[in-house]
Amino acid sequence: MSEHDEKRAEEQRADEQGGTRADRGDGPGESGNRLRKELPDEVSPSVPAARATPDPEPEPDPEPEPEGVREPEPETAAEPQLTGRQRLVQGLWPPRVSRAQLIVAVLLFGLGFGLAVQVASNSDSDSALRGARQEDLVRILDELDDRTQRLEDEKQGLEKQRDELENSSDQAEEARRQTIEKERQLGILAGTVAAEGPGITMTIEDTKGTVEADMLLDGVQELRAAGAEAIQVNGVRVVAGTYLTDSGKGVAVDGNKINAPYRFKVIGKPQDLEPALNIPGGVVQTLEKEQATVTIERSTKIVVDALRAAKRPDYARSSSQ
């Protein structure tokens, strides 16, 4: 039985008791019962509403996580493994160079540069000969043969002089004669006496002004190597101590300024002198590259009459007694 039904039952018992009291002539009870009957039944709406709404079920407590079990953390990306080349780069850069290593590196660089220059110069000379014509190669071989023959003749002459001194009955007179002849030869080389003989005349026309002193010096050295015995350039005698320098638009020989055209008078064997100047990559080709014109003429008589005053050496003295 619900609470509402119990309340109605109590009201009915109260009514019955009130009726009994009314029968007994109880006035106030009678009026009270009459009012109760006229009023509607009181219904408390809150009670059934409260009964109708079920209590919310308590949420279950979250189960505690076991201490030993944890959520796996996201693994960090593994570092990439370096290759051998990358490790080498890291080891070499940034460089850690000591003073000794720097000195060794500079020395090795200088050595390598010198070797490279030497190889380049050798390859240039080889390429010049490799590109030469057959006639040029034959001429070079003939020039070498002539130089060898010239040295052999000089050797035989010295041996002849020695034999004459040993076999002559008047050794003093023979020695004097050879001394005079030697003095004359040395005078030609020193430029103190005039000379004449077969040779060549080389004329260099320099209209562009591009010929320099070192080019003329190369010509002098080439002529000496080919057996030139006396050389004269524009009236200046060339001797062992001669030097050439650039002077304005011309060239100076031993301080004496000369201008183009440059004329070389050379005494020697023409068959040796001319080929020496015309070898591939030689004096003539070098001058022609500078837009100069070179003319060489052979002659049976070349006169070299420019003289140099005899100069006593400052330091050198004869060692013979």
From TrEMBL:
Family: Belongs to the UPF0749 family.
Native organism: Streptomyces viridochromogenes (strain DSM 40736 / JCM 4977 / BCRC 1201 / Tue 494)
Residue numbers spanned by region Disordered: 1-85, 151-178
Signal sequence range: none
Any one GO cellular component localisation term in the record: plasma membrane
Compositionally skewed regions (Basic and acidic residues) per UniProt: 1-40, 151-165
Protein name: DUF881 domain-containing protein
Taxonomic superkingdom: Bacteria
Pfam families: DUF881
Biased composition (Acidic residues): 56-66
InterPro entries with a match to the protein in the record: DUF881
